[in-house]
Amino acid sequence: MSDQRPLCGVLSLTVPCLLGGPHTVPYLVTMLEYCLMSGRDFWDVILCAKSPAQLEKVSEKLFENFEQQPEEEQEYFYAR
Description:
Blueprint: H1 16-19, H2 25-38, H3 43-47, H4 52-67, H5 71-79
């Protein structure tokens, strides 16, 4: 489902801990990005991380993804 602009889409995902699913860094990053964009609680996703080292990798990847966004989007979401 998307809005009037082709830039925004809605994605429904299930928290990996609930299904015993993958606890990989890319999946956790995707889940956290979804939580940040949708306003959903992120604690369930954080608890799925296997170790503090994995959380560190997730935070680094989130930062890399943020830095790849255009300047205008960075400013908008930084202030949000």
